[in-house]
Amino acid sequence: MSSPASGGANATGAERDLGRGAVVGAAAGAVSYVLGYLVVYVTQSGRVEEGLSGINFFADLFGGHTISVWRGVGWVFYNAHFVDVDVPSLVGAPRSVNFISQSDGGFTYLYVVSPLLLLVAGVAIARAAGATTPADGAQSGALAVAGYFPLAVVGAFLFRYAVGDGGSVAPTLVTAALLAGLVYPVVFGAIGGAAAGATGE
């Protein structure tokens, strides 16, 4: 039978591992978000710039603000999370657009970028937390949400482009928060963490 002192030591060790997992989770989640955006930027900035050239020509011609490439890449990045971009319409309600699904299919691979990064993040978090079972690993890996969610919400505002009378082109906020910010890191982080826990000692 273990003594109270040893039980306290074990509890302290578990709390320490959990705390380390939470810190690593926030960092790994944030890194996954930033790396995901950078992958989209590196691979798609040229295509985005070309797609925006016509719009920016008229915006510049009539003294409007042109759309930055980094902002357009942000729209594609959220599209890769199945988050639509709301685009104002001249008549009626805004329409929702996913530039990836409406493309010729040449860059649908972007759909797997964030899941893969979050799987790796989940593994790293579970290893840092010392998870030795799939359940513990999944619980630890899901902590990627601590870093991913805030950036997903901030990004939905950061990539907003104001148009005319209060309208804007921007990722759909609710979907950006719930799907990109919560579901993605929790699900894929947990899967990666569970895999790490299953192979942990």
From TrEMBL:
Question: Which controlled-vocabulary keywords does the entry list?
Answer: Membrane, Transmembrane, Transmembrane helix
* Entry keyword ATP-binding: no
> What is a single Pfam family found in this protein's UniProt entry?
DUF7978
Cross-referenced InterPro entries: DUF7978
Q: Which domain of life is it from?
A: Archaea
Segments spanning the bilayer are 22-43, 109-129, 141-163, 169-196
Q: Does the keyword Membrane apply?
A: yes
Its name, as the record gives it, is: Transporter
